[in-house]
């Protein structure tokens, strides 16, 4: 045996040939090629797997849902359930991180509260009335909450006996959005002063008011009930609106307000009164002595039940303001600004109420071949916008509107007299540009002609077609107007509209005569989804279930059963948020995470989507259009609804009564 020395040579013989020596070099080249190829394959696999975790699920695109695309969903990884579940888990984790990130950002972006006024100085009030029947009111509140110090929601009415509270307009069981109103006001530090009125079915009832005002005992009972209700709900005060009073009753109003004030004193609750600009009104000075502030209603110069005419002529408003200031200090007077329109047919009442956007859309639709400046006139005496048209039956119409220019003139007249506080009637019907000078952070802001020149209407939505399959035909466009301003008074004396602002226009498809499509949202849930499936199977009826991702994770057996029994499955997001109120990234993750869960459970994807909270086939605002836009960008078809049974409001008692009815 030879032992190699330190130099590598053997001691005792010739050096043997190494076993793995390849003089040609072919083996080395093969190994290099194999290593490179293996690395490339590994890299491609890694990249593909990483992208599959974060990519948007691929969906088929098609114009609508017909027979040829029924159940047209592609197989999604049917032979690899473990990988599908991994994707679903990854999407869910990403979604939870995004939710936390969005919440942190929302809190950091919150606008600071306006500082309190110095001691001894009355606060400047920037308020708005909120009417639940004005559908776009909640959207305006959400968009403009940072501008407000107070909200006056129309929630309380006198009962028929004139001694108790009718709280039906407040009841969250009947109007769930009232809870959202509370949340918005809490988040933006807005004081809530519910309105107590004698209105009934759209008319101010003089009989109810007379029963109250003519009887001190009734007044005492109502004062106690109002205190208990306002204090019990944690509200900060009460706004009283008594109109259309019988002869002799206006003089009795201060006594009633005095009883309310005494009842409210122990809890330091605020009291205010809405004073009509003219007519049979309570004595302003006596009202002001009993209230913390008075709202002068500078609108309805010609009301719904009057002949057509200006809604707030400049000279009319100026005279009303001067009369009120003779008895009420400027610091305790609030300038009530109207923001709406009326449409009279044939020169006779009643007029049809319009939002500012509806009024301008009417002008554009009814006289489409004419220039806007030739249609809408700015009355030189009233300084209000107005126009006329004939409908399809050739009936003449006369429309008057209080837009941002009329509001600017009211604001200018009030500031010139030291009245800094403002209250808008009503949220959702206004020309949005007025918020440029109605702002709690800038209580002395004056109207600026440059900012008033552009118009936009973000709340209402127009439609084309019929059905519940929704798409976007056109996007909003801004309008344009020019103004003339008197340099001496600051009043705007002329307004010329050169281009109408236009809203979203949505397409509606899928309508079939004498046919309905059954859909179920928010599940799957035990035991209800199973019971629904039993009923559908009994009658051989197929339906569509829009599932919430986290519920589908909890009940995979129900997801399988829905699919296996021939029903459709749609996407209803993962955590059921309002997609219009979350970031685009979170909206994408909400849909992706739910899509992944569906894929993991049934091996199929879905193209159907229904937005939480905004499922109506006629979205009422740009906010409600946002989920449709976001879903379309991801390849989904949005499915609305035209009939909502509101079964989510049912109680155990309702269910028992329903069963009893069927058994009878």
UniProtKB/TrEMBL annotation:
PROSITE patterns from the UniProt entry: GH18_2, NODB
Regions crossing the membrane: 33-56
Residue span of region Disordered: 1-23
Keywords on record: Membrane, Transmembrane, Transmembrane helix
Residue ranges annotated for the NodB homology domain, each copy included: 514-664
GH18 domain sequence ranges: 124-445
Pfam families reported in the protein's UniProt record: Glyco_hydro_18, Polysacc_deac_1
GO MF term set: chitin binding; hydrolase activity, acting on carbon-nitrogen (but not peptide) bonds
GO biological process: carbohydrate metabolic process
Gene3D superfamilies: 3.10.50.10, Glycosidases, Glycoside hydrolase/deacetylase
Protein name: Uncharacterized protein
Organism: Eiseniibacteriota bacterium
UniProt lineage: Bacteria, Candidatus Eiseniibacteriota
């Amino acid at each position: 045996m030879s032992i190699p020395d330190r130099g590598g040579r053997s001691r005792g013989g010739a050096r043997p040939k190494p076993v793995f020596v390849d003089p040609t070099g072919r083996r080395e080249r093969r190994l290099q090629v194999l290593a490179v190829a293996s690395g490339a394959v590994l890299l491609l696999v890694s990249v593909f797997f990483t992208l599959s975790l974060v990519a948007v699920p691929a969906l088929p695109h098609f114009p609508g849902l017909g027979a040829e695309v029924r159940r047209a969903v592609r197989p999604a990884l049917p032979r690899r359930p473990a990988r599908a579940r991994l994707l679903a888990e990854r999407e869910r984790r990403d979604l939870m991180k995004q939710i936390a990130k969005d919440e942190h950002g929302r809190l950091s972006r919150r606008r600071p509260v306006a500082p309190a006024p110095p001691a001894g100085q009355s606060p400047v009030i920037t308020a708005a009335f909120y009417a639940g029947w004005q559908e776009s009111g909640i959207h305006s509140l959400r968009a403009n909450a940072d501008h407000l110090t107070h909200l006056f929601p129309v929630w309380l009415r006198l009962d028929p006996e004139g001694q108790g509270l009718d709280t039906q307009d407040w009841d969250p069981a009947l109007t769930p959005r009232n809870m959202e109103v509370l949340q918005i006001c809490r988040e933006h530090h807005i004081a809530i002063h519910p309105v107590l009125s004698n209105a009934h079915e759209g008319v101010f009832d003089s009989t109810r008011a007379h029963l109250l005002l003519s009887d001190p005992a009734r007044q005492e009972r109502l004062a106690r009930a109002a205190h208990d209700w306002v204090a019990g709900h944690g509200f900060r005060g009460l706004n009283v609106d008594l109109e259309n009073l019988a002869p002799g009753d206006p003089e009795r109003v201060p006594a009633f307000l005095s009883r309310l004030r005494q009842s409210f004193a122990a809890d330091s609750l605020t009291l205010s009164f809405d004073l009509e600009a003219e007519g049979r009104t309570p004595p302003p000075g006596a009202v002001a002595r009993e209230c913390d502030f008075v709202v002068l209603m500078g609108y309805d110069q010609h009301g719904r039940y009057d002949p057509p005419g200006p809604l707030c002529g400049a000279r009319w408003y100026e005279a009303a303001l001067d009369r009120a200031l003779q008895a009420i200090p400027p610091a305790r007077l609030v300038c009530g600004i109207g923001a709406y329109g009326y449409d009279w047919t044939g020169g006779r009442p009643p007029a049809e109420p319009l939002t500012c956007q509806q009024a301008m859309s009417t002008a554009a639709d009814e006289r489409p071949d004419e220039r806007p400046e030739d249609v809408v006139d700015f009355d030189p005496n009233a300084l209000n916008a107005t126009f006329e048209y004939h409908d399809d039956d050739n009936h003449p119409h006369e429309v008057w509107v209080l837009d941002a220019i009329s509001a600017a003139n009211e604001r200018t007249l009030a500031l010139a007299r030291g009245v800094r506080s403002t209250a808008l009637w009503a949220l959702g019907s206004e020309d949005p540009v007025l918020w440029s000078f109605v702002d709690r952070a800038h209580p002395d802001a004056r109207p600026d002609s440059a900012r008033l020149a552009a118009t936009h209407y973000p709340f209402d939505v127009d439609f084309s077609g019929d059905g519940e399959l929704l798409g976007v035909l056109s996007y909003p466009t801004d309008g344009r107007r020019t103004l003339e301003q008197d340099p001496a008074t600051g009043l705007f004396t002329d307004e010329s509209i050169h281009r109408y602002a236009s809203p979203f226009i949505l397409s509606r498809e899928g309508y079939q005569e004498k046919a309905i499509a059954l859909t179920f949202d928010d599940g799957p849930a035990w035991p209800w989804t199973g019971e629904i499936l039993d009923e559908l199977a009994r009658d051989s009826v197929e339906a569509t279930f829009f599932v919430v991702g986290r519920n589908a994770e909890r009940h995979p057996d129900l997801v399988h059963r829905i699919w296996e029994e021939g029903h459709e499955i749609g996407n209803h997001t993962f955590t059921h948020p309002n997609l219009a109120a979350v970031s685009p990234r979170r909206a994408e993750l909400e849909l992706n995470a739910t899509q992944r869960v569906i894929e993991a459970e049934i091996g199929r994807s879905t193209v159907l989507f229904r937005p939480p909270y905004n499922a109506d086939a006629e979205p009422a605002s740009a906010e409600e259009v946002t989920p449709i836009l976001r879903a379309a960008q991801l390849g989904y078809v949005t499915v609305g609804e035209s009939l909502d049974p509101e079964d989510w409001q049912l109680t155990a008692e309702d269910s028992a009564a329903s069963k009893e009815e069927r058994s009878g």
